[in-house]
Structure formats: C-alpha cells, structure tokens
Write a structure and sequence with these properties.
This protein is an alpha+beta fold. It is built from three helices and seven strands, in the order βααββββββα. It has one domain: START domain (Alpha-D-Glucose-1,6-Bisphosphate, Chain A, domain 4, 2-Layer Sandwich), CATH 3.30.530.20. It has a seven-stranded antiparallel sheet with strand order 1-7-6-5-4-3-2, covered by helices on one side. Helix 1 crosses helix 2 and helix 1 crosses helix 3. The longest helix is centred in the C-terminal third of the chain and has 23 residues. It starts with a strand and ends in an 11-residue tail after the last helix. InterPro entries: ASHA1/2-like_C, START-like_dom_sf. Belongs to the AHA1 family.
Amino acid sequence: MPNIEHLQIINVPSPIIYDALTTPKGLSEVWTNELTVRNQIGLTNEFRFGSNDITKMQILELVRDSRVVWKCVDSDPEWIDTLVSIEIEEKNQKSYLTLKHTNWREVTTFYRFCNYNWAIFLYSLKSYCEDGVGLPYQKRKF
C-alpha cells in the first residue's frame, strides 16, 4: 500500500504544535475554519471544505506533545480507512514533525493531489505556530 510522508521542522516547542493539532482554534487556523473538534480518543472530528466536502476523522491516539493519530471514517472514498499520524520530536529548541497518511489502496490522481495538500497543511501549521497566522482552506487561492 502506498503512503504519504512529510517532514516539517518548526521552530517552537512541541506543546505549541500539539495544541494546534488538537484544538478547535488551532485546527481552524491551520486546516479549515469549518469544523467540529473534540480532543478525546474515540471521538470523531469533522472538517468541512466547502458545502459538500466533509471529512470525518476518528481520534485513535493522543500522546501529549508527541503523537496524534486519526482514522478516516467518512470522506472521499479513497480516504476511508486510511490513517493520518503526526509525530513530534523536539530537539535543540526545534520540533521535527513527521506526517504520515497511510493505507492508501493505490497511487491515483487524488493521492497525488492529497500529497501536495498535506505539504500545504504543514506549511500552514509552521506559519501558524511560528508567526500566529496559518493558511486554512478558506484563505487559499490555489
């Protein structure tokens, strides 16, 4: 099965990144302004990208300041049952974040599009954590 993997170095301590990835405020600044987020294992968070595009992610793991894992339970059919994991390792005043989107069935046009968009997500996360301004879906022009 193909996987998407990205590494981003963010010049802030890991708790700032963890909060951006697990709170409504952080995720609305980084990913999309239209969301329903609860920070508890087993619950399902909802992310909307326009009127007909919703992604539902069940929270599988939350390890304070170091790991977040979601399982897609509703979205584009290619995303169903895929996993998104984000690992944060802090070294020398910097945080090394590894994002993996795993369990894809095949490499498709949509897979390639999502690969690109996960990179934009990490850019937005870095911008939000370092400068206080992210680039959520509603602000993108590309």
